């Protein structure tokens, strides 16, 4: 009886884990990146809608929904707006979420600080090494930053 109950519990546990994995995978947030020098974020899906703010190249967003050629997005601060599909690219990017962060010459705190980046500065991801991310800014500045400082 105990063995039979254990067998059923293992089956149910497996099914629950499988369902959780499928649910998480199906609803994983889609990320997009601005691929032009400057993009307008608008109040609605259309060129005649108000411009809420402007963002620079490599700015990452989470997709909320799509409507034709327009994408409703959310940024790292939770602000929502719309961007035209032609302004995004399939690029891995991150954005600084702390007031000031050090960009280093290599992956680790012992490496030289090359420059600092303020909150809201976006970067293209070049590669990852552990908890460190090698990034490049649209102006060409490159370095390594700890992933805990990014979104």
What does this structure look like?
The protein has 151 residues and is of the alpha+beta class. It has two domains: 31-91, SH3 Domains (SH3 type barrels, Roll), CATH 2.30.30.40; 94-149, SH3 type barrels, CATH 2.30.30. The chain has one helix and 13 strands. Strand 11 and strand 12 (132-136) form a beta hairpin. The N and C termini lie far apart (51 Å).
Entry keywords:
151 residues; alpha+beta; SH3 type barrels; 2 domains; five-stranded antiparallel beta sheet; 17% helix; elongated
Identify the overall geometry.
Answer: elongated
- The overall strand count is 13
CATH superfamily of the largest domain: SH3 Domains
Spatial strand sequence of the major β-sheet: 6-5-4-1-7
Number of spatially distinct domains: 2
What is the rounded Rg? 20 Å
User: Largest sheet, described in full?
Assistant: 5 strands, antiparallel
Quote the beta fraction: 35-45%
For the termini, the CA-CA separation is 51 Å
Class by SSE composition = alpha+beta
* Total of DSSP H or I helical runs spanning 4+ residues: 1
Give the helix level as a range of percent. Answer: 10-25%
Mean pLDDT over the full residue set: 88
CATH fold topology of the largest domain: SH3 type barrels
């Amino acid at each position: 009886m105990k063995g039979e109950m254990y067998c059923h519990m293992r089956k149910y546990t497996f099914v629950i884990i499988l369902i959780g994995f499928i649910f998480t995978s199906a609803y994983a947030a889609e990320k997009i990146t601005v691929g032009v020098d400057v993009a307008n974020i608008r109040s609605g899906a259309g060129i005649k809608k108000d411009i809420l703010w402007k963002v620079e190249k490599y700015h990452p967003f989470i997709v909320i929904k799509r409507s034709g050629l327009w994408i409703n997005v959310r940024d790292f601060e939770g602000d929502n707006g719309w961007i035209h599909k032609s302004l995004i690219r399939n690029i891995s990017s991150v954005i600084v979420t702390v007031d000031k962060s050090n960009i280093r010459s290599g992956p680790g705190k012992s490496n030289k600080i090359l420059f600092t980046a303020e909150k809201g500065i976006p970067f293209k991801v070049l590669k990852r090494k552990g908890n460190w991310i090698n990034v490049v800014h649209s102006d060409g500045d490159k370095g390594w930053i700890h992933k805990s400082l990014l979104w």
